[in-house]
Specification:
Blueprint lengths: L1 H21 L4 H14 L31 E4 L18 E9 L2 E7 L12 E5 L3 E3 L15 H8 L9 E5 L7 E7 L2 E9 L5 E2 L9 H10 L17
Antiparallel strand pairs: 1-2, 1-5, 2-3, 3-4, 6-7, 7-8, 8-9
């Protein structure tokens, strides 16, 4: 019986080493798991008291489910805190998400430039997950509207707050993996299909191609180059 216990302990220890070596993101959970096992086998509790004694510490909770520290997010829409635990922010604000354990609501830090926050600005709290997108991603771009329909794009662009040259890029309704450019030209909206080459480049006409949509937008913001108008400000996003 003693040999079986030693063998089980050895296998458990080896499994823990394997998880920590090959799954770095699980390290905190592995440490928590073995701490709990140690407590149940007569070791120490979270308070350091012996489990065989009269003093028993509080139950040990698993660590928060966190995201990588290098992962940053950008606010897409304005949000005004509704409770004292919420965090207010404006479009374009950068945030660092610390905890994603609550579905739909993430715990985050507001990242401020040069450490200067707006007067009375809270710097940590809960945010609605669908109000942000990963930094440097296409979803974080102010001109990208995702999978909206052609008719909805026209409604956005013909809003009284937009002007000629306002534009947005959306996912193509008919061609999966491709995009469409919608541009306001006076009282109308023109649509252009953004095609993909075999190497992944983007183009409207093969005469000029682009490695990224950012390069595409930059080019047509400087010159209309065949479009109805030169691209102006991105269409305003409304949640």
């Amino acid at each position: 019986k003693l040999k079986k216990l030693k063998l089980a302990s050895k296998r458990s220890h080896n499994m823990g080493n394997c998880c920590q070596k090959n799954c770095a993101s699980l390290e905190s959970y592995v440490l928590w798991l073995f701490k709990v096992c140690d407590c149940r086998s007569g070791g120490k509790t979270a308070t350091g008291d012996d489990t065989n004694g009269s003093s028993v510490g509080p139950p040990i909770s698993p660590p928060l489910r966190t995201v990588k520290q290098s992962c940053r997010f950008v606010a897409l829409f304005p949000y005004q805190a509704r409770t004292e635990d919420d965090l207010s922010f404006q479009p374009g604000d950068k945030l660092e998400v610390l905890d994603t354990s609550q579905e739909g609501w993430w715990f985050a830090n507001l990242l401020v430039e040069n450490g200067l926050a707006r007067p009375g600005q809270k710097l940590q709290g809960y945010i609605p997950a669908n109000y942000v997108a990963p930094d440097q991603s296409i979803e974080a771009e102010p001109w990208f509207f995702g999978a909206i329909k052609r008719a909805d794009a026209e409604k956005h662009l013909l809003n009284h707050e937009t002007e000629t040259g306002a534009f947005l890029i959306r996912e193509s309704e008919s061609q999966k993996g491709e995009f469409s450019l919608s541009v306001r030209d006076g009282a109308t909206v023109k649509h252009y299909r953004i095609k993909r080459m075999d190497n992944g480049d983007f183009f409207i006409t093969r005469r000029v191609t682009f490695h990224t949509l950012n390069a595409f937008v930059m080019h047509y913001s400087k010159s209309s180059d065949g479009l109805c108008v030169r691209l102006g400000r991105p269409c305003i996003k409304v949640q």
